[in-house]
Each structure stands twice: as structure tokens, then as C-alpha cells.
């Protein structure tokens, strides 16, 4: 069997996968708002790379009406879906040394059984891989893509809060979880942060709300400056772990801090928009924002972490209401080398 490795998100993409939101029991009064936000995210990404928007049967025309006509860089297809968080339910793509692409199909249980039904989302990876004509690598372990970030050079960062939660893989030890991550994603070093976001009750603390690799040896972390923020102390504990860690190649990590936070009112409640929950596209970075003055400060920090890329903010209040951000609703498809290129 070929040796595959999950490439870093900044590796060149063939495109981006997204899923159209239709679940009224989740979105309620903000369903119309979240459709606009998903479409805006799709259009922002389509300025850098093609987007495939997957809609449940019967909803393709609605998705096209929001996202724009064919030729806009967004293609809409129909496949059975329960929900619309492709970072977590879509396959995680890997490449071998020759540039061949495969997709790892981890199990999905709706973040520990928080939402029902989820059987279609547990099956969607296999359907997407068949649609793309991509080899499927099955795993029995439950894993969401938002729970990990990788540097493409053997290092993976995750949180104990999520991956060791008993509602995911109660039959697996920490060592067995590590072994499966290494076997399926080709990583050799795993850095365990103690915490995800305290308010991130939907995902039980995904790493993509608090930390992301921006380059080999460089991580961006959330470090709220406000001492009253519920994660003020917790994120400093995460930083201490990163400071004491080296990556798979033995390098000390450069840490770039995002001290800004964004709380806003929506649907009669307060929500937090995580600036760290951004998507790295070909030549760009698409960042969730809240429409607040601190947005620009956070975008500037993220731009320093991704030199040479255009940083674009997209309002994502309704997406945050649902429990996520731009990263949560996207999944990159890394470009595979063609047979002709391999033969050259």
C-alpha cells in the first residue's frame, strides 16, 4: 500500500468542497441568513479556486439561486446529506510521494450524537470520493477534520478536550488514537493542546477555533487579551504547550498571537465569531468576521501569518450561531499530479 500523508492546507488545491445548509431544526430563524453567508463564503473562495457545493436532493436550484450561475466558479451537485459541515463529515484528503490522491473516510457521529439523524453524513465521504473518482481509505475511528491541523511535514496538533472526549471513541486509548492518526494521515509527531474553546460546546473544543498551522514551524493561536474572556487562562495554557514543543523535524514553533475576539448579538443571544476558523485558499485566506472594529485588527494579524496571500473577511454571524466558522463549512481537495506529469 502506498504511503500517504495529509498535506498542509496551503498546498495547492484542485478546489473546495462545501455543503448547502437546509436543516431547519438547527438554523431556525437564521436559516435565510446562513444561506446568504454560505453563498458569500463560496463566492469569496471561488475568487481563488473552484468550489463544489453539494446540496441535498431537491435543493440544488436553491443553492444555485444563492451562489450564482454556472461559470461563476461554483458548481452545485446533489447528494444525500443531513447537515452542512464538510470540514467534519467530508473526506480528509492525502497524497502519496508520487502525487496520487486518496481520501480517508473516518466515521462521523455528529459530534458525539448531538444532532440526529446523521447516517447520511456518515456516508457522504464515500459518495464524494466515488464522485471524484478518488481512492477511499476507510477508518473505524470517529474524527472530524476540524479537530486537527497539520503542517504537511509530519506534525499534527489537536486538543485533548475533543479527541479524548468519551462521546467520540470510548473504546480507544490515547495511544490507539495516536496510532490511527499516524497510520491514516502520515504524521509522526502529535502535539496535544489541553483546550479548545470553552464556549465551543457543539464540537467539544475543535482545534480550528484556537490554533492553526500557517507554515512549517509557524502556528497562529487565539490568545484573548481581555482577562474576562472565558478562554483567557486556557489559551495561555495552550501557548505554554506550544512553547515547549518541537515539530516533527525538531524545530521550535514560531507563535503568532491573535489577541482580538468578537462577540455579537444574533437571534436574541450572544455568539462568538472565531477569527482562527479561517480557510486557506490558493492565493488567499477567507476569514470569518463579525462586522466589528476589531475585525480589521485580526485580519491584519492573520495577513502577517500568510504573506503573499490576499486576506478576505466574510461576515459569518449566522454560521457562528450554528457552532462554527468558515473553516468548519469547507474542505480542501489538494491537487493531484496527473499521470503525464508523473511520467515527465
Protein described:
- The structure is a single chain.
- This protein has helices spanning 24-27, 31-46, 60-67, 86-89, 110-113, 119-132, 160-163, 174-185, 232-243, 294-305, 317-321, 339-343; strands at residues 4-5, 13-19, 51-55, 74-78, 92-96, 101-107, 135-142, 149-150, 155-159, 189-193, 211-215, 218-222, 254-258, 262-266, 269-273, 279-281, 284-289, 310-315, 331-334.
- With 344 residues, it is α/β, with parallel strands linked by helices.
- The chain has one domain (4-343): L-arginine/glycine Amidinotransferase, Chain A (5-stranded Propeller).
- It has a four-stranded mixed sheet, sandwiched between helices.
- Helix 10 links the parallel strand 17 and strand 18.
- The relative contact order is 0.17.
- Low-confidence parts: 340-344
The CATH topology label is: L-arginine/glycine Amidinotransferase, Chain A
Q: So, CATH architecture?
A: 5-stranded Propeller
Number of strands: 19
Q: Choose one word for the global shape.
A: globular
Instruction: Count structural domains.
Output: 1
Secondary structure layout plus pairing:
Blueprint: E1 4-5, E2 13-19, H1 24-27, H2 31-46, E3 51-55, H3 60-67, E4 74-78, H4 86-89, E5 92-96, E6 101-107, H5 110-113, H6 119-132, E7 135-142, E8 149-150, E9 155-159, H7 160-163, H8 174-185, E10 189-193, E11 211-215, E12 218-222, H9 232-243, E13 254-258, E14 262-266, E15 269-273, E16 279-281, E17 284-289, H10 294-305, E18 310-315, H11 317-321, E19 331-334, H12 339-343
Parallel strand pairs: 2-3, 3-4, 6-7, 9-10, 12-13, 17-18
Antiparallel strand pairs: 1-5, 2-19, 5-6, 8-9, 11-12, 14-15, 16-17
Amino acid at each position: 500500500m502506498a504511503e500517504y500523508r495529509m498535506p498542509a492546507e496551503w498546498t495547492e488545491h484542485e478546489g473546495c468542497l462545501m455543503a448547502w445548509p437546509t436543516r431547519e431544526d438547527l438554523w431556525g430563524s437564521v436559516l435565510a441568513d446562513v444561506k446568504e453567508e454560505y453563498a458569500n463564503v463560496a463566492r469569496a473562495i471561488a475568487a481563488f479556486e473552484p468550489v463544489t457545493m453539494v446540496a441535498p436532493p431537491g435543493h440544488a436550484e436553491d443553492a444555485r439561486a444563492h451562489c450564482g450561475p454556472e461559470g461563476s466558479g461554483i458548481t452545485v451537485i446533489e447528494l444525500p446529506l443531513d447537515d452542512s459541515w464538510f470540514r467534519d463529515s467530508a473526506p480528509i484528503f492525502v497524497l502519496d510521494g508520487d502525487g496520487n490522491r486518496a481520501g480517508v473516510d473516518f466515521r462521523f457521529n455528529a459530534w458525539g450524537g448531538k444532532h440526529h439523524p446523521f447516517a447520511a453524513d456518515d456516508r457522504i465521504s464515500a459518495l464524494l470520493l466515488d464522485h471524484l473518482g478518488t481512492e477511499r481509505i476507510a477508518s473505524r475511528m470517529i474524527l472530524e477534520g476540524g479537530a486537527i491541523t497539520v503542517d504537511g511535514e509530519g506534525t499534527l496538533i489537536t486538543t485533548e478536550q475533543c479527541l479524548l472526549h468519551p462521546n467520540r471513541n470510548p473504546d480507544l486509548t490515547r495511544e490507539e488514537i495516536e496510532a490511527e492518526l499516524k497510520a491514516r494521515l502520515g504524521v509522526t509527531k502529535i502535539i496535544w493542546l489541553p483546550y479548545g474553546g470553552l464556549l465551543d460546546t457543539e464540537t467539544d473544543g475543535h482545534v480550528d477555533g484556537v490554533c492553526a498551522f500557517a507554515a512549517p514551524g509557524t502556528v497562529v493561536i487565539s490568545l484573548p487579551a481581555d482577562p474576562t474572556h472565558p478562554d483567557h487562562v486556557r489559551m495561555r495554557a495552550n501557548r505554554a504547550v506550544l512553547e515547549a514543543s518541537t515539530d516533527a523535524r525538531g524545530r521550535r514553533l514560531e507563535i503568532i498571537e491573535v489577541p482580538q475576539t468578537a462577540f455579537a448579538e444574533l437571534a436574541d443571544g450572544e455568539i462568538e465569531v472565531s477569527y482562527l476558523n479561517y480557510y486557506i485558499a490558493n492565493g488567499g485566506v477567507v476569514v470569518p468576521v463579525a462586522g466589528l472594529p476589531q475585525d480589521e485588527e485580526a485580519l491584519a494579524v492573520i495577513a502577517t501569518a500568510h504573506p503573499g496571500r490576499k486576506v478576505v473577511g466574510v461576515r459569518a454571524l449566522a454560521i457562528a450561531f450554528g457552532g462554527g466558522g468558515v473553516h468548519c463549512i469547507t474542505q480542501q481537495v489538494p491537487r493531484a499530479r496527473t499521470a503525464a506529469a508523473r511520467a515527465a
